[in-house]
Amino acid sequence: MPNKFNLDDFPNFKEEMRLIKENHPLAKFYPVGSCETVADDGYEDIDILCCIDQNDLEPFKVFLRDGDWLRDQNQQYNEEQFLSYKALFNDQTFNLLVSTDRNFVNRFLKASNLCKHLNLTRKEHRVFVHQMFVSGILNKVIEEIQV
Questions:
Q1: Which residues, in sequence order, are bridge partners of residue 93?
Q2: Does residue 22 sit in helix, strand or coil?
Q3: How far apart are CA 128 and CA 46, in angstroms?
Q4: How far is CA 132 from CA 67, 97, 139, 140, in A?
Q5: What is the domain extent for residue 99?
Q6: For the chain, N or C: smaller number of CB within 10 Å?
Q7: Structurally, how many domains does the chain consist of?
Q8: Tell me, what's the pLDDT at 105?
Q9: 43 domain-assigned
């Protein structure tokens, strides 16, 4: 897996992000990683976390639906926390995780940083860490083991 996601490697996605930011300037975007590579020089999926204001959520969903983004129908998590979309740009799959819950976004970013620090590249390992952070279980465990 490359060390750093480079937007310039994906010009169609770069243009898509420019359009999204132009139409939804308050939305915040965070590249949160990718899992196991398909080829030595490529990514499997690239995940982007988006934090958006509740008042902008419906127009944002319409904007994505009118573009190249499809709702992830295999979403097996709490849709109150985030919505998942997929799109293909420059032969690369991008996942856009959209949330209005700033606490969820902060926990998700902490989990992503831990996955990066531990160099977790297998999807099931990353999902496990994220579930522990997002559910709050990890915080409870840390509180119990502190002396």
A1: 45, 88
A2: helix
A3: 18
A4: 33, 18, 8, 10
A5: 7-145
A6: C
A7: 1
A8: 93
A9: yes
